[in-house]
């Protein structure tokens, strides 16, 4: 069994910074890709950033140069550092981690419950 928990969201003024985290715990043998998504009210969920196990990262065009994804494999944790935040970044941010359980034979995408990020103008 696995738990995935996000933390670090909150309210920030435009131009400010936030760092959100997502940690997986439980009977984990190994993690693979880690991703951050976001969903704003009335909009579809969109992929914000992704990082491979060896640290290769990709970003949505809307956040390139402002957001940085990183990970700590020993802690099964992924981070998203968000700088120069804009009101359009307001959304619930979700993480997804590919996990292979100790007792498993397939990779599962495990999701957190989401953390609210609100950017005021």
Topology summary:
Layout: E1 2-7, E2 10-13, E3 18-26, E4 28-39, E5 46-51, E6 57-59, E7 67-72, E8 77-82, E9 91-101, E10 107-111, E11 115-120
Parallel strand pairs: 2-11
Antiparallel strand pairs: 1-3, 3-8, 4-5, 4-9, 5-6, 7-8, 9-10, 9-11
Question: Your description of this structure?
Answer:
The chain is mostly beta strands and 121 residues long. Helix content is 0%, strand content 61%. It is built from no helices and 11 strands. The protein has strands at 2-7, 10-13, 18-26, 28-39, 46-51, 57-59, 67-72, 77-82, 91-101, 107-111, 115-120. Strands 2, 4, 5, 6, 9, 10 and 11 form a 7-stranded mixed β-sheet that branches. A hairpin with a 5-residue loop joins strand 5 (46-51) and strand 6 (57-59). The radius of gyration is 14 Å and the shape is elongated. The chain starts with a strand and ends with a strand.
Q: What's the number of extended β-strand segments?
A: 11
Query: How many H/I helices?
Result: 0
Tell me about the largest β-sheet.
Answer: 7 strands, mixed
The dominant shape is: elongated
Q: SSE order in H/E notation?
A: EEEEEEEEEEE
